[in-house]
Amino acid sequence: IIILGIESSCDDTSAAIIRNGVLLSNIIASQKVHEAYGGVVPELASRAHQQNIVPVVDQAIKQAGISRDEISAVAYTRGPGLLGSLLVGSSFAKGFSLAAGVPMIEINHLQGHVLAHFIQEEGVEFREPRFPHLNLLVSGGNSQIIIVRDHLEMEVIGQTIDDAAGEAFDKCAKVMGMPYPGGPLIDKLAKEGNPNAFEFSKPRIKDLDYSFSGLKTSFLYFLRDQIKENENFIEENQADLCASLQKTIIDILMDKLVKAAKQTGIKEITVGGGVSANSGLQNALKAEAEKRKWNLFIPKFAFTMDNAAMIAITGYYKFKKGQFAAQDAVPFARMSIND
Ligand code: ATP
Ligand code: FE
């Protein structure tokens, strides 16, 4: 079974080839145009996807060393994401499916993030999470805790009621005058700072849910007060601010994850989404895993961000179940993990 995966939900155009669960290629074209605007501009994103999609797919097929007619099916991201961006990937998939005479498989982007742990690579030792496992999905649009019962059977047991963790990173970075996306930059600067230099309040949210909008607001007010006293406050304290902010976000994330693991009795833990690349979060997860005897899975960097390999692997499992899409399938901007 050879699956061509297509990902175009936000600002990365990506194509990947997976043969029987093993990754042969994973090409990602990131869009630089958005940096100057402090966030992703939907119109520019879909235009860039249009420019990138054909060369990216060509390169993925070439690098995989296969020929086009060996492909068994094309899997593409149906949602959630930016509608204009999703349309480019889904239109391409429909065209490819018709031209090549192969079935089309629609993929939930969030399931893709969760299943990134099942991507095998040649020459890389493969550890596979068992079922059920708990997944902490932390990305630009989502922060949730999921019980993964099988490849395609997931249950959300906690989620953010407002902003996502990635948004908290990005919005606070913006307040400090940093470029978009701020998450990776905060991670880098935090390494030089003192995580206990400043204290920001943590939300009191029930059960396993998250909230990050209050943190952003209190961070903004805190800076505003400090700048009144010292107009160079941000520049002079940048590393400490990043370290303290990052620690607060990590504490919030870990607190509910530990609670979820205790409540469910599940010790098989996976993490995914862009924020799972955060070095502080990875360290906190490793420390907790050591302490609580968790069997922890952290994706390699290329699989934390948006990529088509995770779409192709999800397509592989749907292919085996015969779950194909019709030509009139439409993309959805908003989708939960079970849609
Ligand atoms: P979703 O998957 O929910 O639709 P998305 O695809 O936009 O959202 P991802 O691409 O998975 O989200 O993740 C992007 C987010 O990850 C951004 O908010 C970015 O700041 C954050 N991020 C990336 N690297 C790091 C890092 N090292 N530390 C903290 N945050 C990071
Ligand atoms: Fe994503």
Automatic annotation (TrEMBL):
Family matches, as SUPFAM superfamilies: Actin-like ATPase domain (SSF53067)
Domain Gcp-like: 23-312
Keyword Ribonucleoprotein: no
Catalytic activity from the UniProt record: L-threonylcarbamoyladenylate + adenosine(37) in tRNA = N(6)-L-threonylcarbamoyladenosine(37) in tRNA + AMP + H(+)
Pfam family, one: TsaD
Subcellular localization(s) per the UniProt record: Cytoplasm
Chief location bin: cytoplasm
GO MF annotation, one: tRNA N(6)-L-threonylcarbamoyladenine synthase activity
GO cellular component term of the entry, any: cytoplasm
Cofactor info, note text: Binds 1 Fe(2+) ion per subunit.
GO process terms (BP): tRNA threonylcarbamoyladenosine modification
Annotated residues for binding of substrate: 137-141, 170, 183, 187, 278
Positions with a binding annotation for Fe cation: 109, 113, 306
Physiological role: Required for the formation of a threonylcarbamoyl group on adenosine at position 37 (t(6)A37) in tRNAs that read codons beginning with adenine. Is involved in the transfer of the threonylcarbamoyl moiety of threonylcarbamoyl-AMP (TC-AMP) to the N6 group of A37, together with TsaE and TsaB. TsaD likely plays a direct catalytic role in this reaction.
NCBIfam families named in the record: gcp_kae1, T6A_TsaD_YgjD
Protein's name in the database: tRNA N6-adenosine threonylcarbamoyltransferase
Native source species: Sunxiuqinia dokdonensis
Origin organism lineage: Bacteria, Pseudomonadati, Bacteroidota, Bacteroidia, Marinilabiliales
Gene: tsaD
